[in-house]
From TrEMBL:
Region of interest called Disordered, as start-end residue ranges on this chain: 78-99
Database matches in Gene3D superfamilies: 3.30.428.70
Residue stretches making up the Ap4A phosphorylase 1/2 N-terminal domain: 34-192
Name by which UniProt lists this protein: 5',5'''-P-1,P-4-tetraphosphate phosphorylase 2
Top-level taxon of the source organism: Eukaryota
Species, as recorded: Drechmeria coniospora
A GO biological process held by the record: nucleotide metabolic process
Record GO terms (molecular function): ATP binding; ATP:ADP adenylyltransferase activity
Length: 353
């Protein structure tokens, strides 16, 4: 059953100088190693690139709208995000990860990946893990992709960065993916809190199992830790991905050859993935978004959602869309239901998956 919809609730929006080496816990992580100073590296590079005009950060007017348990963040500046001129039909689209500007490049990570600042940051210090060689965003993720992601998350633990790092991936046409070159995106959780009240109830949705169970859409989770090996992490991912495939198959009639969806090659479904130090989540997608309308039924725009939804975040591009959702939060609940497998339709089939 869906949670009861109520009127929206609006909430407008040190390091210890006496460092003791023996007081800092040490986490021995398997897999690739990220730089120990990664948070400082990202912070410094972001400030320098922004000052030079090499990236754009659109300050977010952070407002939390509660519909059931899902918070919506509003960012009106996204409507003015600059866009590259459209390519001619004969021109191959540029790959932003093939040769990024030196000012955005952060560092290599393992033999197959590197880190780069996001040119269009949605929060400060938004950065990306990309493959060195072109690999399709639409393919099933590999062990190395997940191991490198966990290495980034581990670098944000301790050293005054207890809030951690949220990683997400958009895979497939309905996921919100915008680039064909494989990449996962990283958002420092402390910067996601910028603009929220000090004691805001907002938290990462991916880490809130009870909230996910009450969400209008279906998502699948597995517990992980910073000590999870890349092989075990990939196994958990495949378990979630295959469960999501079976859920989509039960909803749409999707079929594949063999007893299980293949562990490599083109993914059979669209989905979002989220990862924190505690959890890996897969959200199967059936649509990128849904129409937004006023109470009168007059359409005012379209709400498009990507993997930031698993952080309890939605980016609304137009003031008119926000006003409509604020006036009638049922529109948001309807959109959340439409983008994936509706919770009420899934619960009766869950035991078969």
């Amino acid at each position: 059953m869906l949670p009861a919809l109520t009127r929206p609730q609006l909430m407008e929006s040190h390091n210890d100088s006496h460092f003791k080496a023996y007081a800092m816990p040490v986490v021995i992580m398997p897999g690739p190693r990220s730089p120990a100073n990664l948070p400082d590296l990202v912070r410094t590079a972001f400030a320098k690139a922004r000052s030079a005009g090499d990236l754009s950060y659109f300050p977010t007017q952070v407002t939390t709208l509660l519909v059931g348990t899902i918070p919506l963040r509003f960012s009106p500046a996204l409507a003015n995000k600059p866009r590259a001129p459209p390519a001619s039909p004969s021109q191959k689209p540029a790959d932003p990860f093939a040769n990024p500007p030196p000012s955005l490049h952060l560092c290599p990570l393992g033999p197959a990946h590197y880190l780069v600042l996001n040119k269009f940051a949605i929060v400060p210090e938004h950065f990306i893990l990309a493959t060195n060689e072109f690999k399709p965003q639409s393919h099933v993720l590999e062990e190395a992709d997940l191991g490198a992601t966990l290495a980034c998350i581990g670098a944000y633990e301790g050293h005054g960065h207890a809030a951690g790092l949220f990683a997400f991936f958009n895979g497939g046409e309905h996921s919100g993916a915008s680039q064909p070159h494989r990449h996962l995106q990283m958002l420092p959780v402390a910067r996601m809190r910028d603009g929220l009240e000090e004691h805001s109830a907002w938290n990462l949705l991916a880490d809130e199992a009870d909230q996910l169970q009450r969400a209008p859409f279906v998502a699948f989770t597995e517990t992980i830790s910073l000590n999870t090996s890349p092989a075990d992490l990939h196994e958990k991912y495949l378990k979630l991905y295959r469960r999501a495939c079976r859920a989509v198959a039960a909803q749409t009639g999707l079929a594949w050859d063999g007893p299980e969806p293949p562990a490599e090659g083109e993914a059979l479904i669209s989905y979002n993935l989220a990862m924190t130090k505690n959890t890996i989540v897969v959200l199967p997608r059936l649509a990128e978004g849904a129409a937004v309308a006023e109470r009168s039924g007059e359409p005012v725009g379209r709400l498009a959602l990507n993997g930031t939804l698993l952080a309890g975040t939605a980016l609304v591009k137009m003031e008119s869309e926000w006003e409509a959702l604020k006036d009638d939060p049922r529109g948001l609940a309807d959109a959340l239901r439409a983008i994936g497998i509706p919770r009420e339709e899934f619960d009766g089939k869950a035991q078969k998956l």
